[in-house]
Write a structure and sequence with these properties.
It contains 13 helices and 16 strands. The protein is α/β, with parallel strands linked by helices and 449 residues long. The chain is globular and about 55 Å long. Mean pLDDT is 84; it is low at 1-45 and 232-243.
């Protein structure tokens, strides 16, 4: 296919005040994304069958990810009656649900257990961090043949922008020290559906979100002039072809302009708008300020916020590992759930706490626990799930699912269902190949309110 030149019958009018350098810069930036149309993809896209529509029970998801593999025995599924080498070094605490215990450092969360659903029978077969992370962010086992999109990217693709805010935000960033961080990305979907990363930590005293403000030397007039130039170049290239890269670039710029020009969007990221008292109650630390910001973002219109916190890969000295990580999380998480409930948001906001896998049933020789995907736990709250429920169970030693095993596929299908997305739907991958949003698993009907 012969490409048309800018100089052959497709002239652009350089507006007064727009320099040749600005024009060439924008043209080159647009040119970087050009590719030939994918005819097979377009043809296949017309033949993907429709699926039944589902009603949304949740407007947003806060996905709290505890990287490293949090031990279920020291958190959501302690074994108070097991021997010490299985029970571990911590003393479980009673929750406000009869006969239900949480780990020693989860006392605040134990007091709001009647607002939660705990799944104690999660299971998969991936014991490596990267592969376990992929499972829990996509609902798919990793494949060398294809990269699967994260929950946030699928939600962004299906539900789109609301209130000029990115549909998918990662706090503090997409990679954030998480092994297998690309599992938080777009996979086979266009990069237009990728996450917006803060670029700094909300707990920092000088916290500021990158790309939300104009550079000091750029006036609003100059900002609008540059946007007009970009629109002109976009219109030209759009008349030549439609490619994923070009569409992604256009979506990226539109989202960026929306963020910079929207006062509402900037306010959503402003933690200083919260009262000092509430910030103190969440905790002036990473856990507290990240979860408080997540609440502000979903309140303002973000569809899915992923928050990563802590390091839970406790192969040794698990007692001090939890002492260093869990108390701040306990305070912040309990305050988040209560805050959402107080504001009337909990019933329409799904809060999901997950990790890549659990830990071995028996304490090892260095007083820690090793990787263990055969059984672990996930905590859910709000967004259409029941309150005050424990779903499934592990056996007496925390080594196998004892009842109602739940796969990552089933968890993913349930999350999508609550967001009003039918995971039986197929999306188009490169090469015109339709792929199920989730392949396998079932919606966990027993936890739905």
């Amino acid at each position: 296919m012969k490409m048309h030149s800018l100089c052959q019958g497709n002239h652009l009018d350089l507006r007064v005040g727009q320099s040749r350098r600005e024009f060439l810069y924008a043209g080159l930036a647009g040119g970087l994304g050009l590719s030939l149309p994918n005819l097979l993809r377009l043809e296949a896209g017309m033949t993907i069958p429709d699926v039944a529509k589902v009603d949304a029970k949740a407007d947003a998801v806060i996905h709290i990810y505890l990287p490293g593999g949090i031990a279920h025995q020291e958190s959501w599924d302690p074994k108070p009656f097991a021997s010490a080498d299985y029970r571990g070094p911590l003393t479980p605490v009673k929750t406000n649900l009869p006969g239900v215990y949480f780990g020693e450092h989860f006392a605040k969360t134990a007091a709001i257990a009647d607002k939660l659903t705990i799944i104690r029978s999660m299971t998969h077969g991936e014991a490596a961090h990267e592969r376990g992370t992929h499972n829990m962010f996509t609902g798919y086992r990793p494949s060398p043949a294809i990269k699967f999109p994260s929950f946030g990217s699928v939600v962004s693709h299906e539900l789109g922008v609301k209130n000029s805010l990115p549909p998918y935000v990662c706090v503090p960033q997409a990679f954030g020290g998480v092994a297998g961080g690309e599992s938080m990305g777009t996979g086979y979907l266009s990069t237009a559906y990728g996450p917006f990363s803060l670029g700094s930590d909300p707990a920092q005293s000088n916290f500021a979100v990158r790309d939300l403000a104009l550079p000091k030397d750029v006036t609003e007039q100059r900002f609008n002039r540059r946007r007009g130039l970009l629109d002109a170049v976009d219109a030209h290239f759009s008349s030549l072809e439609k490619s994923d890269a070009l569409t992604a670039m256009d979506s990226f710029y539109q989202a960026a302009y929306g963020l910079v020009s929207s006062q509402k969007a900037r306010e959503a990221f402003d933690l200083n708008a919260e009262t000092p008292k509430l910030r103190d109650e969440y905790g002036r630390n990473q856990a507290g300020q990240r979860l408080l910001l997540a609440r502000r973002l979903v309140e303002s219109g973000v569809r899915l916020v992923t928050v990563t916190y802590g390091g839970w890969d406790h192969h040794s000295d698990i007692k001090n590992g939890f002492k260093n990580n869990a108390p701040n999380f306990d305070v912040a998480y309990a305050r988040l759930i209560q805050d959402l409930d107080d504001r009337g948001m909990l019933d329409r906001t799904l809060v999901m706490v997950s990790s890549e896998f659990g830990r071995t049933p028996k304490i090892n020789s260095t007083n820690g626990r090793d990787h263990y995907p055969r059984v672990f736990s996930v905590a859910l709250a709000g967004g259409g799930v029941k309150r005050g429920m424990v779903y499934g169970s592990s056996d007496a030693l925390g080594g196998e699912p004892d009842a109602d095993p739940v796969s990552p596929e089933s968890l993913a299908k349930t999350m999508y269902r609550l967001m009003g997305i039918n995971a039986e739907k197929r999306l188009m991958a490169d090469g015109g190949r339709p792929i199920d949003i989730v392949n396998g698993g079932e919606v966990i009907e027993g936890i739905l309110a």
